[in-house]
Design a protein that fits this description.
The complex is a heterodimer of chains A (339) and B (291).
Chain A: E1 4-8, E2 10-11, E3 14-15, H1 17-33, E4 37-43, H2 50-53, E5 60-65, H3 74-88, E6 92-96, H4 101-112, E7 116-120, E8 122-129, E9 136-147, E10 152-157, E11 164-168, E12 185-189, H5 192-195, E13 203-209, E14 221-225, H6 234-245, E15 248-251, H7 253-257, E16 278-282, H8 288-291, E17 299-304, E18 317-320, H9 323-337
Parallel strand pairs in A: 1-4, 1-6, 4-5, 5-12, 6-11, 7-11, 14-15, 14-16, 16-17, 17-18
Antiparallel strand pairs in A: 2-3, 8-9, 9-10
Helix pairs in contact in A: 3-4, 6-9
Chain B: E1 3-9, E2 11-13, E3 36-38, H1 40-56, E4 59-66, H2 72-79, E5 85-89, H3 99-113, E6 118-122, H4 133-141, E7 145-156, E8 159-166, E9 169-176, E10 179-183, H5 195-201, H6 207-213, H7 216-224, E11 231-233, H8 235-238, E12 253-259, E13 268-271, H9 274-286
Parallel strand pairs in B: 1-4, 1-6, 4-5, 5-11, 6-10, 7-10
Antiparallel strand pairs in B: 2-3, 7-8, 8-9
Helix pairs in contact in B: 3-4
The chains are: A alpha/beta (339), B alpha/beta (291).
Chain lengths: 339, 291
């Protein structure tokens, strides 16, 4: 059986979470398909990089190490990754739906003339019958994704072309270490002959990447605000509650679009997917695109003046009231009782 | 020769505000019930093109769109904002195309228009949110791509400098032209329509529209004024291979469509009184959700 291949993103020597999440997902799918998982790392100074990846269960780690391969630029990375895909012929390719993955994956899919599904929220193995020809296909990758602004969920398959390519956002799949001491086979790919024919037209003049200040993905408690918060200043109240209970502040797209909160705080389909222990939704009506990014939370409390707000239908506790008066009460009672 | 910018734009249903009445009883979306709008990030892209034109003076902006005949609307909307010309790729045989088949057709149209220096489009369209057509078109044309652009910093001596907006920072990169740039929603919003340009271009029409309208005055205006012609491009005009377009040219197939079903929970409803909030906080502390 052909393998599953994961493109691993790397920043400052650290493999990104989304890549490890995809490896974890691939390990499960590979069991069903009876195939192996290949992790591809393209960059420079990759010595010992396998230590970050092996514990998640990749069978094979392919590294292409060249000074010219870091930081990421489209054409050199496409050339190397495409070369590996042509050689190894995986049946499935997964890439993180990040600004890098969403730049790389379509370029490759176009070149290989294969199907690509963006921002999948689930990946499942299953059979498919073509309605017109009646032809049956075994063990395809069902690529499940929201479409149409999140108002529908589509299941996409690529019956004829290989590889079946999908991108997945960070936080959608679960990162699961299987064995600290797991050993992967290491394969070094010589990038030099590939890069000899590559267009280095694109040059990075300046690069300013900040260490992640906001980390919604790993927050156990999220206090999120929607349009109902009313203003940028209104978010101060949420900041205060988050600080008191040791949580992180999130926001709905409506709040981000209105300029109340920065984009890095956006929870939902076009933002981050989160599943904290507690999600407090303040003045969030609960559009589908928002719920898709947080309905896996263990517990949901909503604060909304509207008893009919859709968010209440997925909440464990719905406080009907104005967040501007409810949040100070929460802060006060938390402080009093947690002493 | 003028610096030629091709702007790829799309008319999309406004999926951001889907109200109950736009949902059919089977849970699917009734596209016809949604207003058709100019894809938001394509407007950001148009603004970047217009700024280049402002700076260079001698630049020509060509709008290229693909869709049903009514998609000519967004070409006119672009003209009201100072685009110079428009092409509408329209043919029933293109229907059912995924991003691969779409990018093939767009690349054929770009080649037909020819002599371009820059292609610029929105990062993604709000009906699919895939962000694939830009990079795929660049690959087909064998030119570099710059995605997630926030600002065109400069265009000079055959090179373009772009500021990109990434998840955790910014990057300024430079590439030789021609190149394809996709613009992020954080870029400058598009300028409003201009009243003079509206008067100038309001009768800009496609051949199909002229036929349907059958208005002598407009027919005559379009005949006399070259700039009022919106050109249509069909499968035959673009010399497309049949197996690369529409459903046949699309490797991805839709297996099924589900409506989004809410896993309804029975929420405990409480009011905002001091006692109720106090009890809630107490419970959260006791069961170790907090603290």
């Amino acid at each position: 059986m052909n393998n599953i291949c994961v493109y691993c993103e790397i920043e400052d020597g650290i493999i990104s979470d989304v890549s490890l999440e995809l490896i974890s997902k691939s390990v499960k799918l590979a069991k069903q398909l009876n195939c192996k998982v290949e992790a591809v790392v393209i960059g420079t100074e990759l010595k010992n990089i396998e230590k970050q990846i092996s514990p998640f269960g990749a069978d094979i780690i392919l590294t292409a190490d060249d000074k010219r391969l870091y930081p990421y630029t489209t054409l050199p990375h496409s050339a190397v990754f495409e070369h590996i895909l042509k050689e190894n012929k995986p049946q499935i390719v997964m890439v993180g739906a990040t600004s890098i993955g969403r730049d790389l994956a379509p370029r490759i899919a176009s070149s290989l003339k294969c199907g690509l599904t963006a921002d999948c929220t689930d990946l499942v193995i299953g059979d498919y019958q073509d309605q017109k020809t009646g032809k049956e296909y075994k063990d395809l990758l069902y690529q499940v994704r929201p479409a149409f602004g999140g108002n529908i969920i589509a299941t996409i398959v690529n019956p004829e072309t290989r590889p079946q390519m999908a991108t997945v956002r960070e936080g959608v799949m679960k990162k699961e270490m299987i064995d600290k001491n797991h050993k992967s086979e290491i394969v070094k790919v010589d990038a030099t002959p590939i890069l000899n024919n590559v267009n280095f037209a694109v040059k990075i003049i300046k690069r300013h990447i900040e260490a992640r200040k906001i980390n919604l993905g790993s927050a156990q408690i999220i206090v999120a605000g929607g349009f109902g918060v009313g203003s940028k200043e209104g978010f101060n109240l949420l900041n205060e509650l988050a600080k008191v209970v040791g949580g992180e502040v999130g926001a709905s797209r409506a709040a981000v679009d209105a300029g109340f909160a920065e984009h890095a705080r956006q929870v939902g389909q076009t933002g981050v997917t989160v599943r904290p222990k507690l999600y407090i939704a303040c003045g969030i009506s609960g559009a589908i695109q928002h719920r898709a990014g947080m309905d896996g939370s263990a517990q949901i409390i909503s604060i909304n003046t509207d008893p009919e707000a859709p968010i209440n239908s997925i909440a464990d506790v719905a406080i009907i009231g104005d967040l501007h008066s409810v949040i100070p009460k929460m802060i006060k009672h938390y402080k009093e009782q947690s002493k | 020769m003028a610096f030629r910018i091709i702007v790829l734009a799309k008319q999309v249903p406004d999926t951001r505000n889907v109200k109950e009445d736009a949902m059919k009883s089977d849970g699917t979306v009734n596209r016809a019930a949604l207003p058709a709008i100019y894809n938001p990030e394509d407007l950001n892209a148009l603004e970047q093109a217009l700024q280049i034109k402002d700076r260079m003076g001698d630049a020509e902006i060509i709008i290229l769109t693909m869709g049903p005949p009514r998609a000519a609307d967004i070409i006119r909307e672009s003209m009201y904002r100072d685009a110079d010309k428009g092409y509408l790729i329209t043919d029933r045989r293109f229907a059912g195309a995924d991003t691969l088949a779409t990018s093939y057709v767009i690349s054929k149209a770009v080649e037909k228009i020819g002599n371009y220096d820059l292609i610029i489009s929105g990062r993604q369209a709000i009906d699919g949110d895939t962000a694939q057509v830009g990079p795929q078109t660049a690959e087909k044309l064998n030119i570099p791509q710059i995605t997630y652009a926030e600002e065109v910093v400069s265009v000079e001596k055959g090179k373009i400098k772009i500021k990109r907006r990434l998840e955790r920072g910014v990057e300024v990169i430079e590439t030789a032209l021609p190149a394809l740039v996709t613009v992020h929603g954080s870029a400058a919003p598009c300028r409003p329509k201009n009243a003079k340009l509206f008067m100038k271009y309001k009768h800009a029409k496609t051949p199909t529209e002229l036929q349907t309208l059958d208005d002598d005055y407009i027919n005559q205006s379009v005949k006399n004024k070259l700039y009022l012609n919106i050109e249509e491009l069909s499968v035959d005009d673009l010399d497309c291979e049949a197996e690369k377009i529409g459903l046949a040219g699309s490797p991805t197939k839709v297996k099924k469509i589900d409506s989004v079903v809410l896993q309804g929970k029975d929420a405990k409803i409480i009011n905002d009184s001091d006692t109720e909030v106090k009890d809630l906080m107490k419970e959260l502390i006791t069961n170790h959700t907090l603290g």
